[in-house]
Amino acid sequence: MLIFPKPQKYKAKVIEKQQLTKTVYLAKYQLLSPDTINFIAGQTMMITVAPGIFRAMSIASPPQEKTIITSVQDTAPGGPGSKWMTALKVGDDLELMAPLGRFVVDHDSPRKKVFVATGTGIAPFRSMLFDETDLRIPNEPISFYWGLRHKEDMYLFEEITIIDKLRDNLVFYFTLSQPPENEWDGLKGHVTGLVMSYEKDLINCDYYLCGNKKMILEMQEKLTAIGVPKDQLKFDPFY
Ligand SMILES: Cc1cc2nc3c(=O)[nH]c(=O)nc-3n(C[C@H](O)[C@H](O)[C@H](O)COP(=O)(O)OP(=O)(O)OC[C@H]3O[C@@H](n4cnc5c(N)ncnc54)[C@H](O)[C@@H]3O)c2cc1C
Fold first, then answer.
1. Which distant-in-sequence residues (6+ apart) come within 8 Å of 221 by Cβ?
2. Which residue has a Cα nearest atom 52 of ligand 1?
3. Could you say which of 22, 28, 62, 227 would form a disulfide bridge with 16 (CB–CB 3.0 to 4.6 Å)?
4. DSSP letter string over the chain?
5. Which of 31-45, 104-118, 157-171, 203-217 has the lowest mean pLDDT?
6. Which residues, other chains included, contact 59 with Cβ-Cβ below 8 Å and sequence gap of 6+?
7. Does residue 138 carry a pLDDT above 70?
8. For residues 17-43, b (16+ Cβ closer than 10 Å) or e, as one string?
């Protein structure tokens, strides 16, 4: 049985901030006090973005990185969390509470894992895919579906492609819902449609869904309609 580490308050410092697209940032936070964290891949943190205002952020780094945590954040929503990230600078201090949430892989289940992400819903899967514990589990088949809207929205693609090459148990499906005409020979459309057509044994999979609620609801509806039991669906809706 999984034991979830107890959440704690952390003081941290921004040590890296990278702009990945027009609105998406990757940031790294050095933990100061306490200076290490134990968490399970897929868990989240709650960052104080303004006095009394908190935003949930998935931990995008793997649990083996115990002193620095990474987030991948979209600032397109434009609210207090987005404003905080836009203004954030290397050297800034922050406070966060972690680890939180139960969106973690059930490695005891014999079923194939199907990971489905839209947008920055990639964040918990990045942690799961980089998790060395997971890498050591032989022959645990995983399909990873990730959907973004436009070609210019693309980020972290090379990184996931490298993991895909390293792991013989992983199949990575990347799709654009609004690809440029004549300039995209990859997959097109929404992740939901792809999962339903590419997975051969839909009933016997565990599904991990992360990103926008619309995708999560659609996946739930389609999968339960064909008889997938609800306890084979785990989800982390961002908005
Ligand atoms: C468990 C959990 C984990 C999360 N992890 C991440 C993460 O790793 N990366 C990340 O970018 N976000 C993540 N989020 C979303 C994040 O907590 C904020 O909701 C988001 O950053 C928007 O905050 P805001 O203050 O800028 O906007 P808000 O004022 O909170 O929202 C403004 C509006 O934008 C909508 N909205 C919220 N998020 C999005 C979005 N991504 N795209 C379009 N519209 C949106 C809201 O529904 C609202 O209508 C997570 C949410 C949850 C619940």
1. none
2. 238
3. 28
4. ---PPPPEEEEEEEEEEEE-SSSEEEEEEEEEES------TT-EEEEEEETTEEEEEE--S-TT--SEEEEEEE-TT-SHHHHHHHH--TT-EEEEEEEE------TT--SEEEEEEEGGGHHHHHHHHH-HHHHHSTT--EEEEEEES-GGG--SHHHHHHHHHH-TTEEEEEEESSPPTTS--SEES-HHHHHHHH-S-GGGEEEEEEE-HHHHHHHHHHHHHTT--GGGEEEEE--
5. 157-171
6. 39, 41, 43, 44, 45, 69, 70, 71, 98, 99, 123, 124, 127
7. no
8. beebbebbbbbbbebeeeeebebbbbb
d(CA 11, CA 30): 9
The whole-model pTM stands at 0.96
CA of 77 to the centre of ligand 1 (A): 7
For a substitution probing ligand 1, which of 86, 215, 238 has the most ligand atoms within 8 Å of its CB? Answer: 238
| Residue for token pair 């800034």 | 92
Instruction: Report the alpha-carbon angle 213-149-135, nearest 5.
Output: 75
Query: Would you say the CB of residue 187 lies under 6 angstroms from ligand 1?
Result: no
Q: Tell me the mean pLDDT in the region 132-137.
A: 71
